[in-house]
Amino acid sequence: MLGQVEAAEEALRRAAERGRPDGPAPGDDLQAYFDEVIAADQKIEPRDWMPEAYRKTLIRQIAQHAHSEIIGMQPEGNWISRAPSLKRKAILLAKVQDEAGHGLYLYAAAETLGITRDELVELLLAGRQKYSSIFNYPTLSWADVGAIGWLVDGAAIVNQVPLCRCSYGPYARAMIRVCKEESFHQRQGYEILHTLSHGTPAQKAMAQDAIDRWWYPSLAMFGPPDGDSTHSAQSMAWKIKRFSNDELRQRFVDMCVQQAEILGLTLPDPDLRWNEDRQAYDYTQPDYDELMRVIKGDGPCNRERMTHRRRAHADGAWVREAAAAYAAKRAAERERVAA
Amino acid sequence: MSGRFDFALALGDDALIAAQRLAEWTTRAPEMEEDIALANIALDQLGAARLLLSYAGELEAAGRDEDALAFLRDDREFRNCLLVELPNGDFAVTMAKLLFLAAYQLPLYTALAGCADERLAAIGAKARKESAYHLDHASTWVRRLGDGTEESHRRMQAAVDQVWPYVHELFAPDPAAPVDPATLRADFDARVAAVLDEATLTRPESGWAPAGGRDGVHTEHLSYLLAEMQVLHRAHPGARW
User: What's in the GO CC field (chain B) (predicted)?
Assistant: First the structure.
């Protein structure tokens, strides 16, 4: 996976060195030029003309991605105060801090499309933009921190590595940075589970229980099956998306089966087995009705996650106002001195 | 405290409990940048705590490592100052606590960096750079809040009034310690006075000087903090994580 991220980074560098097709001359068809850039696997940059629907799709997708990083701090943040060793506490704290950083990169990428972070945060708080459904599940034991690292971050990486080659330059570049840190987190999550599964019987049971609860929500992270996916065809044509939901889900399953064996833990699917003809594992699909319920707001933690975010935002209002007032005073002072 | 074990333990406990409180802010900060900053400072404190507690464990030579010291002592055995265990309160209280802690730790670690004990000197040399950053961050916010809006000024002054009495304990004389805390007071006062002054805040005139942390006599807050911090570790005796 990390190899693919590095290859995408290298491709990005080579494309920049090749130079782009000459910009459109006055009076040229802007759409034709846009299509030419996409066809040549070059990047669309903020200064370029782009179809309004391309801009809107990207804003929706990048914002949802950014919101997921911010809301996604909550389930893991839940265990920082109780982490069982000082080393694990430090690793978890650093990981949650990285997620806030990923949120910032992604909001900055979205801002290049002509919307502000404040507007996006308002849309999240008003419930008008979504975040990943996975963060509406509770973290009930320490092993959940490991399961989130291994399965949730693993699914996120499988989803996001192809985005390192996405046609919108700022998003592709953000994803390269995000994926490098995410694969580090995924390894750490795997290591937590490995330690637990080789520890006491109670620790091993804790690890198995976490995998049993996180497996299907992680499979559902790839979205509805291809037949029901609303944005896919257009996103593929624009080279925002490179593989279908089901292709990526299959890739994830194939990766996890082998890793679960090394862990000595089982995936909670009695019908999981190697299919010689397809050269891939057959598996039971997640419950997509449940996925739709969670996306619509009725998962176990939707209300708590949103209430928590809204409260933090509201409680911090006086601090942000103070910072703005202080900055205005200093700016006025500098003007007086200059005058 | 006076021996090197007691000294390293007290400083390690200060940093550990401060880290635990700062980390409680994760996902709750007023803005995303501040979420990152507070987690960053918590990580620095936790890093210093691990170095100091590991060294304390070696000095004690009773087989206790950083985790045994952090997770298997009760509140009567903790040696942190009361300041760091006080609840976070609002953002102004947290910044008042951080300002006072950093203004104490910076000269402390700086002095430690020149002390005769090589391990403590190395820890001091590393930690003082981090403390300088913490002090800068807290000072910036205390100025912003003190000289921001009417409400933020009121809250920041209330926070200083609430927390100030707890700083006196930090400077109780201990001539036998590797660095006598009493020698740090003048530096602390000068730094804090400059920040409060710029922030249009005043230092309270209260004569109340609560103490006891260094003797393991804490506020009522510490045992709740430890109950949460230690619950999982204590539930699985002898397990590796």
Answer: cytosol
If phi over 0 gives left and psi between -120 and 50 gives alpha, with beta otherwise, what is residue A197? alpha
The answer as to whether B137 is a domain residue is yes
CATH number at residue B146: 1.20.1260.10
Taking contacts as CB-CB distances below 8 angstroms, the residues of chain A near B47 are: 90
pLDDT in tens, chain B (241 residues): 468 999 999 999 999 999 999 999 999 999 999 999 999 999 999 999 999 999 999 999 999 999 999 999 999 999 999 999 999 999 999 999 999 999 999 999 999 999 999 999 999 999 999 999 999 999 999 999 999 999 999 999 999 999 999 999 999 999 999 999 999 999 999 999 999 999 999 999 888 999 999 999 999 999 999 999 999 999 999 999 9
Structural domain contains residue B75: yes
Helical residues (DSSP H) of A198-244, grouped into ranges: 201-220, 232-237
Enumerate the residues of chain B whose CB falls inside 8 A of the CB of residue A324.
Answer: 148
Q: Which domain holds residue B32?
A: 4-235
| HSE, side-chain direction, 13 A CA sphere, residue A132 | 25
Q: How far is B41 from chain A (nearest CA, A)?
A: 11
Residues B119 and B121: their CA atoms lie apart, in Å, by 5
Tally of domains in chain B: 1
Nearest by CB: A77 against B26, B144, B149: B26
pTM value? 0.96
Residue B166 forms part of a structural domain: yes
Residue B240 placed within a domain = no
